[in-house]
């Protein structure tokens, strides 16, 4: 309900009813905490004791609403307990019929329909069974379709809700224009999700794509959504099961028998990559040459496919063009972000810049605008959102604080300092690159010295090695060993002295590294109070947010090129060796093995 209120874009009055007392109490508390103190949350059974009613003489009528959203219990087997559906005081089942006693899904849906105004709209989450189950439910479904109340059906992924793994759907009810409705908009979104632990989750891009397609009634992707006429539904005996109308299965990767027998990559497989050839028309000729009508050969070695694609001038231009395309959005977004003042609304901000990014990438070749949109939304959820709320509350301020941790005994330990808006690495990269370079070099030297020392100890730790008789290899034991070794043991002395030298170098480097890091840490911390607002904006917007997003979205370009490389390689391997060649090779190998076996005395007919 809170999400609905946020999406409304205008003040709304919220009503809700929940059977569980603890849940309804929690809901009331959340309404107050999230600035909806006037929301009315009732506790009770929605079907047997609806909380929102009106008096009409001596009769009670259900209060009617503009919008209803619901996620009722799936297949409630006790829905009619305490209720006589045939004598329902609210006439919820008079028009469409009473649902089965052991299947309460339609009972909730019919309650919602009865609770809507004449132009009211609703969305209800129900199990897929309501779309195809027979008997009484089939009759209710038939009447609902003929009344034109069902505007759309959205199929959701399986394992989405807690407590059940079955797939569900959203039934969208719209009484407005019901009489003139000619069909039902069906959308199969079952493939759009991300696995998160034991459950599946709809990403921001999945939700946005569903909303966009449904709002526009966009059926340009028939495997995703289409408008289904009532005539077609009637031919299917009012069965609304989505697979009857939308084939969302992935296209099968067909094997070409002639290609396997005679060799050559089928033209159909190459033309299936037409999106790439539209962007880079000359790349196709660089990769393939004609073999015979309908079949092509790979013109480069399999190991050179990636180099050919990545290095092709047209593909290089495409990647560069996409980088420029991001920079175009970046310019406008940067201007918006740097103009933020305390008190702005972060939710409104992300909606504005995210929508602009989505529109900016619409109709771009080889890339899904919703994938790009998801990169921004992920970064917003993980990092940028917290930064935005800091700026909204305190303005463009970057203040450090001490990180204090408590152990199990409650003892506090100072773990250094931090800054949420501008992490230390941003300050170091912007103002102390020389100092960081020195630290990096000392770190490399220390790593090399430590590796050499470890190799020396490993090499001379065998049974007859220099360190074989030492209980521990440390400064004291090596020094004591040097006293005991005679001058004639030249090799042993050399090893022991080399160990001492390396150990001394390691100690010096460790000390130097510690001093340099402490010095850099002090300089970086001291820099924060001297940062101007313009510098803070530069570091936060340009160096932190935009650079991270640029790297993330550039990953989409890598995915595009990798997809093409992998597919061409797969086709080359599949049809690279025709059957006669494979048969000949197999015969040669068989003869070779038989010859070896004969020499070993194993011969058979």
The order of strands across the largest sheet is 5-6-8-7-9-12
- Overall mean pLDDT score? 92
Radius of gyration: 35 Å
Q: How would you describe the shape?
A: extended
Number of self-contained structural domains:
3
Strand content: 5-15%
Helix-strand makeup class:
alpha+beta
Q: What summary fits the major beta sheet? A: 6 strands, mixed
Distance between the amino and carboxyl termini: 80 Å
Low-pLDDT windows of residues: none
- Determine the number of helices (DSSP H or I, runs of at least 4 residues): 20
In total, the number of strands is: 17
Helix % is 40-55%
Characteristics of this structure?
alpha+beta, Rossmann fold, single chain, 3 domains, 3-stranded antiparallel sheet, 605 residues, 6-stranded mixed sheet
In terms of topology, how is this protein built?
Blueprint: H1 2-8, E1 15-18, H2 21-33, E2 40-43, E3 53-56, E4 59-62, E5 65-70, H3 105-114, E6 116-127, H4 136-147, E7 150-155, E8 168-174, E9 183-188, E10 194-196, E11 199-201, H5 204-216, E12 225-229, H6 230-235, H7 257-262, E13 265-266, H8 267-271, H9 274-279, H10 281-287, E14 288-292, E15 295-298, H11 305-311, H12 313-338, H13 346-361, H14 369-394, E16 401-406, E17 412-418, H15 424-431, H16 433-459, H17 475-484, H18 490-527, H19 533-575, H20 579-599
Parallel strand pairs: 1-2, 5-6, 7-9
Antiparallel strand pairs: 3-4, 6-8, 7-8, 9-12, 10-11, 13-15, 14-15, 16-17
């Amino acid at each position: 309900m809170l999400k609905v209120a946020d999406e409304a874009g205008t003040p709304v009055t919220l009503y809700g009813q929940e059977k569980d007392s603890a849940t309804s109490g929690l809901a009331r508390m959340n309404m107050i905490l999230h600035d909806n103190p006037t929301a009315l949350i009732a506790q009770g059974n929605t079907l047997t004791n609806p909380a929102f009613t009106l008096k009409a003489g001596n009769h009670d009528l259900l209060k009617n609403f503009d919008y209803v959203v619901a996620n009722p219990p799936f297949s409630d087997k006790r829905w009619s307990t305490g209720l006589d559906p045939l004598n329902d005081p609210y006439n919820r089942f008079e028009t469409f019929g009473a649902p089965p006693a052991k299947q309460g899904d339609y009972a909730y849906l019919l309650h919602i329909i009865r609770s809507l105004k004449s132009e009211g709209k609703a969305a209800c989450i129900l199990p897929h069974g309501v779309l195809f189950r027979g008997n009484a439910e089939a009759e209710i479904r038939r009447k609902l379709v003929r009344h034109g109340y069902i505007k759309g059906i959205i199929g959701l992924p399986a394992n989405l809700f807690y407590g059940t793994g079955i797939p569900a759907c959203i039934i969208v009810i719209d009484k407005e224009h019901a009489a003139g409705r000619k069909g039902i908009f069906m959308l199969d979104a079952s493939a759009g999700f991300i696995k998160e632990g034991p459950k599946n989750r709809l990403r921001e891009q999945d939700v946005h794509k569903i909303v966009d397609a449904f709002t526009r009634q966009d059926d340009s992707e028939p495997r995703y959504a289409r408008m289904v006429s009532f005539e077609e539904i009637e031919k299917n005996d009012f069965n609304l099961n989505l697979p009857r109308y939308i084939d969302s299965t992935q296209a099968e990767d067909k094997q070409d028998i002639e290609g396997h027998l005679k060799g050559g990559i089928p033209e159909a497989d190459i033309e299936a990559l037409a999106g790439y050839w539209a962007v880079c028309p000359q790349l196709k000729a660089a990769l393939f040459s004609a073999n015979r009508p309908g079949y092509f050969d790979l013109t480069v070695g399999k190991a050179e496919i990636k180099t050919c694609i990545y290095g092709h001038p047209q593909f290089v231009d495409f990647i560069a063009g996409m980088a420029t395309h991001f920079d175009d959005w970046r310019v406008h977004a940067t201007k918006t972000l740097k103009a933020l003042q305390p008190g702005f609304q972060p939710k409104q901000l992300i909606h504005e810049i995210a929508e602009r990014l989505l529109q900016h990438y619409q109709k771009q070749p080889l890339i899904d605008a919703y994938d790009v949109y998801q990169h921004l939304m992920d970064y917003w959820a993980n990092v940028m959102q917290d930064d935005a709320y800091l700026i909204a509350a305190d303005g463009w301020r970057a203040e450090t604080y001490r990180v204090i941790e408590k152990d199990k005994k409650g003892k506090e330990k100072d773990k250094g300092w931090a800054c949420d808006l501008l992490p230390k690495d941003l300050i170091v990269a912007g103002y102390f690159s020389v100092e960081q370079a020195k630290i990096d070099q000392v770190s490399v030297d220390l790593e090399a010295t430590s590796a050499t020392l470890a190799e020396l100890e490993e090499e001379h730790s065998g049974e007859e090695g220099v360190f074989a008789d030492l209980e521990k290899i440390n400064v004291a034991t090596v020094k004591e060993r040097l006293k005991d070794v005679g001058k004639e043991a030249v090799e042993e002395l050399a090893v022991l002295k080399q160990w001492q030298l390396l150990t001394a170098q390691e100690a010096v480097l460790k000390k130097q590294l510690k001093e340099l890091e402490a010095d850099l840490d002090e300089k970086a911390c001291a820099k924060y109070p001297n940062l101007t607002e313009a510098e803070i904006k530069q570091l936060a917007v340009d160096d932190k947010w935009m650079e991270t997003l640029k790297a993330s979205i550039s990953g989409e370009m890598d995915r595009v090129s990798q997809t093409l490389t992998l597919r061409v390689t797969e086709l080359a391997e599949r049809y690279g060796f025709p059957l006669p060649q494979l048969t000949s090779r197999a015969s040669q190998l068989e003869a070779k093995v038989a010859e070896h076996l004969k020499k070993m005395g194993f011969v058979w007919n």
